[in-house]
Amino acid sequence: MLKRSSASFRAFWPIALLATAGLGMLAALAGFGGRAFAEEPGRRLPDAAVTLKEKSGLRTAVFAGGCFWGVQGVFQHVRGVTEALSGYAGGSRDTASYQAVGSGRTGHAEAVRITYDPSLIRYDELLTIFFSVALDPTQVNRQGPDSGTQYRSAIFVSDAEQARVARAYVAQLNVAQAYAKPIATKVECGAFYPAEAYHQDFMARNPRHSYIVANDAPKLRDLQRYFPERTNAEPILVGAQPPA
C-alpha cells in the first residue's frame, strides 16, 4: 500500500506509482475515469430522511475525507458555502501541523471546516454532497493513494443535533445499500485547527498538479454533473493565511 507522509509524496506520487505497480496499473487508470485508484464512483445519493432545521446566521460543518485538497476544492464550489478551510480535527492543538499529522499518530484527520448559510443550504444537504462526490465512504483509513488514520472518513460534529442527523444519514445509506460495501465514515467530536497557508486553495491554485488531476478533479466534475443546481462556477477562496 502506498503511503504518503509528507507533501513531497503528492508532488511525486506518479513516479512512485510507476515504480511499484508498473504499466499494468497505468492501464487500469483508464477504467476509473481518471481516478488513480479503484474507488466507488461519484453518484447522486438520496436526500436525507432526517433533516436539520437551523436558526438564521452562518453555521459550520467539519468533514474529513482523505486529503483535504479535494474536499476543500469541492465545497468551495457549493452554493451557500461562504468558506471552506483545510485543517486538522480530532487531535490536540500542539500536534496540529502537517509534519506531525503525517505520522498518523496524532489522532488528527485532515479535515475541512465548511462555513455555510443555512437559508441557502442545510447541514443535511451538505452531508448528501459529501457522501455523493467528495470521497469513497466505504474506505477505511484511506482515500485514493493516501493511507493512514489521518486520511480516515469522519464527520466532526459540533452538537447533538448534528450528530443525530449525521448518524441517521449513515444508517439510511447502509439500509438502502447505496454503496456496495458498508459506510465506514465515523461520527466524531474534536476541535478543528486550520492547516498551513500553503495548503489553502490548493486545488484552485494548482489545477494541473498531477495529484489534483488524478484524484481531485474528478470529484469536482462529479459535483457539477450530479448537483448542477448546487454548483458555483467560481470557487470561494480562503486567500490569505487563516488565523491560528
TrEMBL record:
Segments forming domain Peptide methionine sulphoxide reductase MsrA: 60-211
Pfam families from the UniProt entry: PMSR (PF01625)
Record's keyword annotation contains Oxidoreductase: yes
Reaction(s) this enzyme catalyzes, per UniProt: L-methionyl-[protein] + [thioredoxin]-disulfide + H2O = L-methionyl-(S)-S-oxide-[protein] + [thioredoxin]-dithiol; [thioredoxin]-disulfide + L-methionine + H2O = L-methionine (S)-S-oxide + [thioredoxin]-dithiol
InterPro entries, per the entry: Met_Sox_Rdtase_MsrA_dom (IPR002569), Met_Sox_Rdtase_MsrA_sf (IPR036509)
Enzyme class: oxidoreductase
Active site location: C67
Keywords: Oxidoreductase
Record keyword S-adenosyl-L-methionine present: no
EC number: 1.8.4.11
GO molecular-function terms, A-Z: peptide-methionine (S)-S-oxide reductase activity
Function: Has an important function as a repair enzyme for proteins that have been inactivated by oxidation. Catalyzes the reversible oxidation-reduction of methionine sulfoxide in proteins to methionine.
Cross-referenced NCBIfam families: msrA
Family stated for the protein in its record: Belongs to the MsrA Met sulfoxide reductase family.
Protein name as annotated: Peptide methionine sulfoxide reductase MsrA
Originating species: Methylobacterium marchantiae
